[in-house]
Specification:
With 135 residues, this protein is mainly α. The chain is 62% helix and 0% strand. The chain has one domain: Globin-like, CATH 1.10.490.10. It is globular, with a radius of gyration of 15 Å. The structure holds protoporphyrin IX containing FE (HEM).
């Protein structure tokens, strides 16, 4: 739990990544997300690789880094440039909403505090809308 009395002082505040429980939490989130991708042939068809494990790992590393955890994503993949990396995939409202639905379900398997849940969900909603590249 974040200590409400400390304030957003970068010298005293733990990262969001640490506050929510670190690696196991991000592992679970991405596992639960990709389980649903695996079970949806139409959505899965968008993924270039048959094996979703590498994609799951990239998402996990990216999210860990984004929320203040290890920076292995950057070390392995360089600058995220997520919008550019998503350009090859046709992401319209339907794909965006399916992605968000899977992520909401995955988040529901975590035991985040209401504050952490709201922060993460707000980010995913904004990011998913930003990733839309087709009408
Ligand atoms: C809006 C709907 C979205 C769809 C349909 C979608 C679909 C995809 C697909 C098909 C890939 C390729 C899989 C791979 O080989 O890595 C991918 C990669 C990735 N996506 Fe998404 N994505 C969406 C939104 C997002 C959002 C909101 C985020 C982050 C918050 C995200 C993060 C990533 C990352 C980190 C990668 C791997 C990039 C790399 O290093 O190559 N995606 N996504």
């Amino acid at each position: 739990m974040a200590d409400i009395s400390i304030g957003p002082n970068p010298h005293t505040q733990k990262s969001f990544y640490e506050q929510v429980g670190g690696a196991p939490v991000f592992e679970k989130l991405c596992r639960e997300f990709y389980k649903q991708v695996e079970a949806d042939p139409e959505f899965k068809a968008m993924y270039p690789e048959e094996d979703l494990a590498p994609a799951e790992r990239r998402l996990r590393m990216f999210l860990e880094q984004y929320w203040g955890g290890p920076t292995s994503y950057q070390a392995e993949r360089g600058h995220p440039r997520l919008r550019m990396r998503h350009n090859p995939f046709a992401i319209g409202p339907k794909e965006r909403d399916t992605w968000l639905k899977f992520m909401r379900n995955a988040m529901n398997t975590l035991e985040l505090s209401p504050m952490h849940d709201a922060m993460m969900w707000d980010y995913f909603e904004r990011a998913a809308h930003a990733m839309q590249n087709r009408a």
